[in-house]
Amino acid sequence: MPDKPSPINPTDNDARNLSVSLIAKARFCALAVLDPNTNHPHVTRIVLGTDPSGKVLSLISDLALHTSALHQNPNCSLLIGEPKTTGDPLIHPRITLQCNARFLPRTHPDYIATRAHYLAQHPKAKLYIDFADFNFVLFTIQSANLNGGFGKAYNLTAQDCSPKV
């Protein structure tokens, strides 16, 4: 029996540009972690932003299960990209990022600039950003899988998903 051809396309500049665009435009995403109590997958929706250098981050509460999960195991995935209101949802682009999470302490030298940048992206967060239980979590991309629509699958590196400065 002959080998099946790979459904994964070679990474090209169109795939890189689409991945960067999806990440830059996203205002929320699905976050997948392992529940520290059951070790089962747990998925939730979080607000998404970037720090001043373009790295992916979120502002999350200590009250959320996903926060304790990330403290126990920083490996996680983010699913970015929403289907349009019409058409088959599977033809719309989306990207899954495999990441490592790191919390940014309020005492970190980058905290003030990160806070200002985040508030420029999400002004309503001003209502709760300074609550003691809210903290920034930075997501360091390890790899990614881009589905650019039907027949447009790519495996990407962290560099493929990073904005060029």
Structural commentary:
The relative contact order is 0.23. Strands 1, 2, 3, 4, 5, 6, 7, 8 and 9 form a nine-stranded mixed beta sheet that branches. By secondary structure, the chain is α+β, with helices and mostly antiparallel strands. The chain has one domain: Electron Transport, Fmn-binding Protein, Chain A (Pnp Oxidase, Chain A, Roll). Helices cover 19% and strands 36% of the residues. The mean pLDDT is 93. A hairpin with a 6-residue loop joins β2 and β3.
Mean pLDDT: 93
Q: What overall form do the CA principal axes indicate?
A: globular
> Architecture, CATH level 2?
Roll
CATH superfamily: Electron Transport, Fmn-binding Protein, Chain A
Number of DSSP strand runs: 9
In short:
It is built from three helices and nine strands; from the N terminus they run βαββββαββαββ. It has 165 residues and is of the alpha+beta class. The mean pLDDT is 93.
